[in-house]
Amino acid sequence: MGGVLKLRSEAFTRFAEEETAAFERLSRTNVQEVEVRRDLIREGENPRWVYLFLEGWACRYKALPDGRRQNLAFFVPGDICDLNVCVLTAMDHSIGAITRIRVAAIEPELFQEVIAAHPRIARALQREELVKIAMQREWTLNLGQRTAYERIAHLLCEIFLRLDAVGRAADHSCELPLTQVDLADATGLTSVHVNRTLQELRSDGLIELKSRRLTIPDLEKLKSAALFNDNYLHLNDEIAPPAKGD
Amino acid sequence: MGGVLKLRSEAFTRFAEEETAAFERLSRTNVQEVEVRRDLIREGENPRWVYLFLEGWACRYKALPDGRRQNLAFFVPGDICDLNVCVLTAMDHSIGAITRIRVAAIEPELFQEVIAAHPRIARALQREELVKIAMQREWTLNLGQRTAYERIAHLLCEIFLRLDAVGRAADHSCELPLTQVDLADATGLTSVHVNRTLQELRSDGLIELKSRRLTIPDLEKLKSAALFNDNYLHLNDEIAPPAKGD
DNA sequence: CGTCTATTTGAGCCCCGTCAAAGGCGGTGG
DNA sequence: CCACCGCCTTTGACGGGGCTCAAATAGACG
Q1: Tens of pLDDT along B79-119?
Q2: Which pLDDT does position B11 carry in this prediction?
Q3: A150: CB partners within 8 A, 6+ apart
Q4: What CA dihedral angle connects B137, B141, B144 and B149, to 10 degrees?
Q5: Which chain B residues are within 8 Å of A134, Cβ to Cβ?
Q6: HSE of A211 in the Cβ direction (CA atoms, 13 Å)?
Q7: Which end of chain B is more exposed for a tag (fewer CB within 10 A), N or C?
Q8: B140 and A92 in contact by Cβ < 8 A?
Q9: From residues 171-190 of A, which are strand C contacts by CB within 7 A?
């Protein structure tokens, strides 16, 4: 709304002006809005666009026929859903809006043009893809091995760091419009148990959480409670800045 | 050993002779062997090669500092570990040999040349990557939402179908050199509980399993017990055969 | 035929799920 | 500005699926 959109890719790469401009053009093509709790695209449908998230929160999820549901990833402004999603003819999962969202629905060909014209953008996007995949692996570890307490702590760490990387955290605190049901579906727990575990985290002084805002007084403490190792986010090795500094 | 290696990519694409030849050349470069239960590459190390698995079984895994361990994927002959693994400077997970394995450790540049020269190979490999990512999502769903019984049934379905796709299953049966500990680390259960659950699956007539061989008398039955939906394997939409038929 | 690893079994218990209901909070309309 | 409504959070009691610890048995391999 107010501020300028910072892309996820910009967490790795300092773009030159013309690169930023190319993205700005992309983000103005075919802007769509999706209401709270409606789906952007559903399992089985044929993907036609690459989505760039401009506003609001969304999630990738899969559901079993009996209604059990697993959130697989959260999307925040600046994220791209999947660069190569259109290679496959049928979605094997869904993407749903958590809040009201605005997305740019971009033709794959248009994206390919930008990639072909801007090699540094190509590399930044490739890295973004690889990190997304690494996150999916980490979520698998999270669900398979961590306790409820560690699991929720881990998820909150990840969300905070990802928001921070796109300039959406400040003063140990960030927006968190997820309900306890959303958190439950992401951690493989019930919302009842998420509730009790959040209370534990609060009473241990690791988090504050109210009215859609998360505060983490001591990130290192929360990280260690979560057994959080941020190597999978690959925040360190940055892509070299453009030849002409900005 | 005896037979010709069928690549995972060939499950999607019928290669022309010259395409197969290009792969054969790749698979002869820098062949390495890894002993049973040794690591091919470890978390933190700098990946230098793309691995093509020629013989034996391996797994991708992550471990927590206290020893808890999560298997993230299994590799069988014909699989490629990760096409773009070398883009990142430090591995965020490990790859370990389950049996003795033989791999071709291929220079990323060499792979890129083959991809540049053979667009159909490029597309087949891209699909293989996308399916691997879809599998990681499905494992997340598996761990988060399925019961122990469904979870193991699902894993066994997936393994069987993947082996079948590369010509390594026949007569409702395939090799399965995984221990119950391996299965436990893949499903987020303890080996004790895996043992009891396998007995249930056996006594329900869904599987036979002994001396490293899995038999599935009625795959549809096992699938339905697993709530298995094979859309994530994207077996349907094949890539068009080469202009000159084989 | 001995050793090492993998599988199997048993007993007890705890983490987390289920079911049900109450309480809080924000939004909306009168 | 208040009253109502729907959604979200919180709480309680209880049950069970899967874990822990420990030991016995069975296979694999030299």
Answers
A1: 999 999 999 999 999 999 999 999 999 999 999 999 999 99
A2: 87
A3: A225, A226, A227
A4: -130
A5: 92-93
A6: 0
A7: N
A8: no
A9: 188-190
What is the value of pTM for the model shown? Answer: 0.96
Q: Which residue type, as a one-letter code, is found at position B157? A: C
Any idea how long chain B is? Answer: 246
Task: Report residue A209: phi and psi, to 5°.
Answer: -150, 110
Task: Tally the C-alpha atoms within 13 A of residue A39's C-alpha that lie toward its C-beta.
Answer: 13
Tokens of A128: 């973004």
> Is the Cβ–Cβ distance between A27 and A104 less than 8 Å?
yes
How far is the C-alpha of B199 from the C-alpha of B43, rounded, in Å? 35
> Hey, are the CB atoms on A72 and B141 less than 8 Å from each other?
yes
pLDDT tens-digit series, residues A51-85:
999 999 999 999 999 999 999 999 999 999 999 99
Q: CB-based contacts of A9: which residues, under 8 Å, 6+ apart?
A: A15, A80, A121, A124, A125, A127, A128
CA distance to A80, A150, A220, B88, B233, per residue, from B129 (Å)? 18, 30, 35, 16, 11
Q: pLDDT tens digits for A125-148?
A: 999 999 999 999 999 999 999 999
Q: Which nucleotide is nearest to B194 (CA to C1')?
A: D18
Token look-up 């995949």 returns A133
Q: Tell me how long chain A is.
A: 246
* A174 within 8 A of A168, measured Cβ to Cβ: yes
Enumerate residues 6+ apart whose C-beta is below 8 A from A169. Answer: A160, A163
SS3 content of chain B, % helix, strand, coil (to 5): 45, 20, 35
> Rounded distance, CA A45 to CA A90, Å?
5
Kindly determine whether the C-beta of residue B224 is less than 7 Å away from any atom of nucleic acid strand C: no
B125, B108 in Cβ contact below 8 A? no
Q: How far is CA A182 from CA A80, A103, A185, A206, A241, in A?
A: 20, 21, 5, 20, 38
- Tokens 């393994």 belong to B159
Residues of chain B with pLDDT under 50: 1-2, 245-246
Whether the CB-CB separation of B77 and B65 falls below 8 Å is answered with no
- Rounded CA separation B8/A101 (Å): 38
In the numeric block, the tokens 């927590």 are attached to B64
How close, in Å, is residue A94 to chain B by CA atoms?
12
Chain A, 154 to 213: residues with Cβ < 8 Å from chain B are 185, 187-188
Write down the pLDDT at residue A35.
96
